[in-house]
Design goal:
Blueprint: H1 6-10, E1 35-38, E2 41-44, H2 55-68, E3 73-76, H3 84-93, H4 102-105, E4 121-128, E5 133-140, H5 153-172, E6 175-184, E7 193-204, E8 207-216, E9 222-232
Antiparallel strand pairs: 1-2, 3-4, 4-5, 5-7, 6-9, 7-8, 8-9
The structure holds decanoyl-CoA.
Residues 78, 112, 161-162, 165-166, 169, 176-179, 205-207, 229, 231, 233-234, 237, 239 line the site of decanoyl-CoA.
Catalytic activity: dodecanoyl-CoA + H2O = dodecanoate + CoA + H(+); tetradecanoyl-CoA + H2O = tetradecanoate + CoA + H(+); hexadecanoyl-CoA + H2O = hexadecanoate + CoA + H(+); (5Z,8Z,11Z,14Z)-eicosatetraenoyl-CoA + H2O = (5Z,8Z,11Z,14Z)-eicosatetraenoate + CoA + H(+)
Keywords: Apoptosis, Cell membrane, Cell projection, Cytoplasm, Fatty acid metabolism, Hydrolase, Lipid metabolism, Membrane, Mitochondrion, Mitochondrion inner membrane, Transit peptide
Main location: membrane
């Protein structure tokens, strides 16, 4: 059965807001899947369109893919288990087997890639190296509800953390969030598409200061503003 936010919402008229409350019709999936295998695990890139993506999300994705053609923007791959090199680096320096055993580690999933298609965090990220900007195109699915018909603030915070964190990660390698401030200005209707913008403002030693905002796809609504402080981890310090 096709799982997407579009079908259930059609029967929930009350959820339809003035702009984007209900998902537009389904789109055809792209035939090409970017994937590769390492040992026994198949790594599939989750940032490519799937049938749950709304027309708005597809349109924005295609616009950003066009911007990638001259090399100014790059589409960042998203794997269920995070990017391999960073996982290896983190494991090498910071993973403590006392707390998370190896057999448990094989079952972990990146939080934002852990829902069934269309029900959670459908997103794609793009990066502009000259501007030090990361943009996340995000469609929050039905299982991310907070107040009826709207996204949960924690789900919004998760994607803001991930997007600002990605900017910091690209600038500083292995980082963790030390501080995240969010002003929620307008609620985000479930299944609508928003654009999360983020940029590195300042790097001071191990501290990376990042700011960002969340806008509707048509840029008419400012949903949230955020600042974050990310700290480059010190390999000589234990995390636990
Ligand atoms: C799609 C995939 C995208 C992936 C992107 C990743 C996004 C997700 C990232 C996360 O959500 S991480 C999970 C949430 N974060 C944590 O669990 C981190 C918990 N905190 C810690 O482990 C430590 O506090 C931390 C590693 C962040 C810092 O500890 P350290 O011992 O390395 O730093 P230290 O205390 O020496 O401070 C270094 C500098 O940062 C400053 N600092 C640290 N924490 C601060 C804070 N909270 N506010 C302000 N300043 C802070 C501190 O004052 C100091 O400034 P100075 O160099 O000027 O002296």
């Amino acid at each position: 059965m096709l799982r997407s936010c579009a079908a259930p919402l059609r029967s929930l008229g009350a959820l339809r807001g003035p702009r984007g409350g209900a998902c537009p019709p389904l789109c055809e999936p792209r035939p090409a899947l970017r994937s590769f295998s390492s040992e026994k695990v198949i790594y599939k890139d989750f940032s490519i369109p799937n049938p749950s993506w709304s027309k708005d999300l597809r349109l924005l994705f295609d616009q950003f893919m066009k911007k990638c053609e001259d090399g100014s923007w790059k589409c960042l791959p998203l794997y269920k288990h995070g990017s391999l090199q960073r996982i290896q680096d983190f494991k090498t320096f910071f993973h403590d087997p006392k707390f998370t055993k190896e057999d448990v580690m094989t079952q972990t999933r990146l939080f934002t890639s852990s829902f069934e298609e269309g029900l959670g965090f459908e997103h794609a990220m793009f990066y502009n190296d000259v501007e030090k900007r990361t943009v996340c195109l995000f469609q929050g699915g039905l299982y991310l509800e907070g107040m009826p018909g709207f996204l949960h603030g924690g789900a919004i915070a998760t994607m803001i953390d991930s997007t600002l964190g990605m900017s910091a990660l690209i600038a500083g390698g292995i980082v963790m969030t030390a501080n995240l401030n969010i002003n929620f200005k307008r609620p985000i209707p479930l299944c609508s598409v928003v654009v999360i913008n983020s940029q590195v403002d300042k790097v001071e030693g191990r501290k990376i200061f990042v700011s960002g905002n969340v806008q509707s796809a048509d840029e008419k609504t400012l949903h949230s503003e955020a600042t974050g402080l990310f700290i480059q981890l010190d390999p000589d310090k234990s995390l636990t």
